[in-house]
Specification:
The complex is a heterotrimer, with 2 copies of chain A (about 230 residues) and 1 copy of chain B (about 260 residues).
Chain A lengths: L3 H4 L10 H6 L4 H14 L4 E2 H7 L6 H11 L5 E6 L2 E6 L19 H13 L2 E2 H8 L7 H7 L3 E3 L11 E4 L1 H7 L10 H6 L34
Antiparallel strand pairs in A: 1-3, 2-3, 4-6, 5-6
Helix pairs in contact in A: 3-5, 6-8
Chain B lengths: L2 H5 L6 H12 L6 H11 L10 H17 L6 H18 L11 H26 L23 E4 L2 H12 L1 H4 L12 H12 L6 E2 L12 H20 L3 E5 L6 E5 L5
Antiparallel strand pairs in B: 2-4, 3-4
Helix pairs in contact in B: 2-4, 3-4, 3-6, 4-5, 5-6, 9-10
Classes of the chains: A alpha+beta (about 230), B mainly alpha (about 260).
Chain lengths: ~230, ~260, ~230
């Protein structure tokens, strides 16, 4: 099992010096074990970069993760991807066994839930855009609460007058809702196809959304879901 | 947008009116005019894409009328919306005036319909999102994180919120700081009095009050203001005690002080 | 591997009543999944009795555990028995990967977070300027700590008398706080609009001077603070 040629990733060089071997990456099966151990040990998703930093030099955690993911298909726990990070999570169909572990999910206000959805589907999105979509101003504390829960974070500033800050969802958000990336949001494609993720400027005047902020004309669609 | 429904003029049915009335009771439950419009639009029982905006405008205006009759206070934004919808209604009903500038009634109506549809879409999306399998409820993270206790490095951490709040706290300290804490740039009346009692003996003639400000309190406007106020208050105290007199030639002219000490 | 049980859970009795089927234990493969998920998610080792209590009626957790233990042989984690309880643990030979899990996270001190915030918002900034803004002197240790964490580093020297060193934030800082650039930090007005400004300073938030203040030279640089 320790034989690197066996797994075929020890490409080439049939003759090698001892020194070389010393610094060779471990065989893929071993790398898979390592990734497995690290993911199992952590409750938080582990980034690819973190894995690279912890595993011996020359390892390929991404490939090891793919092997591991396949290995756990259909099992009681699964290897899930969350953006750039990976984690092991129990299979959702077994949730009924876990009453003991269930954490009280924080009750979110309707405003917070809608704001969260808008950030997720429209990201990066400015506060003015959120208000425009909801038709009301975002109350104090809503954004605050979502940031505190680590579900949304600041994105890049919009390159429009006033350079307003934008909000995007976090890996924790993906983790919580079991999404591999924001692209996997349910119904995203349909919504986009229906033009409902557009930020159409109102014709002429601004009937809705108080404020009538200068950044209402911030229509940089190109940025949406770039990441 | 179907033209015929847009320009039809059928009366609002009894049922719809009853629904609207029921809403009035609950007006506080709405998150603004757009939310109310969305709820009203449901009485049309059609796909949001086929909604009659004209009909909706009428419903909304009827709602606002009813609220007035019942003396229910509507927030300003509801009234702004009402005014706008009244405008939209007239645009939709009147033949287009080629002279008139700005977007047509149909364009405005289409945009409103779009906003309603988009809001509804986001609500549906939010509901779907919250209905997903969720961490800590349907699927679970590792319960027992492993650690090798022997190697213990302390890592200090902070999140963005901490950072921003720390900064906000520093920058707004002045806004909230109790006055007495501002020792650095506060010159108290007691200090001024001490100083002036000491100096008064040396100045025989009328002297500008400003010249009594202590060294180093002239340039910084905050310090200067504080020192000036304290010195002025102190001089009033001295006058009250009969040790000095004050004069000012006209409003905003320099205030001058003279010792009333018999010795001078 | 476990198919004899999995497919054969209808063993025996060719004729059975519906009621019986309803209360049939799940196939062993399914029981193994359950045990796997419970062991993974539980914060403590799980006893057989606990497993029995959680799993559907008629399950045989002991047998499922045996299957699971075998399945994990040679993997990155193992199913281990601790007294009369069971747990999943990292394979001992991979303990070296767990070092990162042992780090203790501590909240940054108030002095440090404030200093960090000032560097982030005002960089490049001198020590005297930091003290001027905070209103108290900055201890050597605070700067050292932030530099050790690789969140701030030395910038260019200021071209003013004494040529004081300046501090700037590092890419590690941006990474940790999820920022693309320090310019993405919201300004005061935005903080207020987002409800992130506290209404009043928390009790005890008025730090007393910790020593001599050296802000005489800082005053000349006041204009540098303007954004």
């Amino acid at each position: 099992m320790e034989d690197q040629i066996m797994d075929g990733h020890g490409q080439g060089a049939p003759v090698r010096e001892d020194n070389d071997t010393l610094f060779d990456a471990p065989p893929m099966a071993e790398q898979e074990r390592m990734v497995e151990a690290v993911l199992f040990a952590s409750a938080e998703p582990v980034t690819l970069r973190d894995l690279e930093g912890r595993m011996p030099h020359g390892c390929n955690p991404r490939e090891a993760l793919e092997h591991l993911r396949k290995r756990y298909e259909g099992r009681g726990v699964r290897v899930v991807r969350l953006g750039d990070a990976w984690a092991i999570r129990t299979a959702p169909d077994l949730g009924f066994l876990m009453q003991k572990e269930t954490t009280e999910l924080r009750k979110l206000s309707r405003a917070a839930i809608e704001t969260l959805a808008i950030v997720a589907y429209h990201q990066p999105v400015t506060r003015a855009e959120i208000e425009e979509i909801r038709g009301v101003s975002v109350s104090r504390g809503t954004i605050d609460q979502l940031m505190e829960m680590d579900w949304i974070r600041l994105g890049r500033r919009r390159m429009t007058p006033g350079r307003p800050v934008t909000f995007v969802v976090t890996p924790d958000f993906l983790d919580h809702f079991g999404l591999e990336s924001a692209r996997d949001l349910p119904g995203l494609k349909e919504l986009r196809a229906a033009g409902l993720l557009e930020n159409r400027p109102p014709p002429g005047s601004l009937p809705l959304g108080q404020g009538g902020d200068e950044d209402d004309e911030a229509e940089e669609q190109a940025e949406l879901f770039e990441e | 947008m179907a033209e015929q429904t847009l320009f039809s003029d059928q009366d609002t049915s009894v049922e719809e009116r009853l629904a609207a009335e029921a809403l009035i009771v609950d007006v506080d439950g709405f998150e603004g005019p757009l939310d109310l419009l969305l709820t009203l639009s449901r009485t049309q029982k059609v796909d949001l894409r086929r909604i009659s905006v004209l009909e909706l405008a009428k419903q909304y205006l009827a709602f606002v009328e009813k609220a007035k009759e019942l003396r229910i206070e509507l927030a300003a934004d509801y009234l702004v919306m009402a005014a706008w919808l009244a405008f939209l209604k007239s645009r939709l009903l009147l033949p287009p005036d080629p002279e008139e500038e700005g977007p047509s009634g149909e364009e405005l109506a289409a945009h409103l319909a779009f906003q309603l549809e988009r809001l509804q879409a986001m609500r549906d999306a939010a509901a779907r999102l919250m209905g997903r399998d969720r961490l800590g409820r349907d699927f679970f993270a590792r319960g027992e994180e492993e650690s090798v206790a022997r190697i213990k490095t302390v890592t200090y951490t902070a999140n963005l919120l901490d950072l921003m709040q720390a900064y906000a706290r520093i920058r707004t300290k002045e806004d909230f700081r109790p006055f007495v804490m501002d020792r650095d740039s506060v010159f108290t009346m007691e200090e001024a009095l001490d100083r002036m009692r000491h100096l008064l003996g040396f100045t025989g003639d009328w002297t500008d009050l400003i010249s009594y400000l202590p060294d180093g309190w002239h340039s910084d406007p905050v310090k200067r203001r504080s020192a000036t106020a304290a010195t002025f208050a102190a001089s009033l105290q001295l006058v009250k005690e009969g040790k000095a007199e004050l004069r000012q030639s006209e409003t905003f002219a320099p205030i001058q002080l003279r010792s009333l000490n018999e010795d001078s």
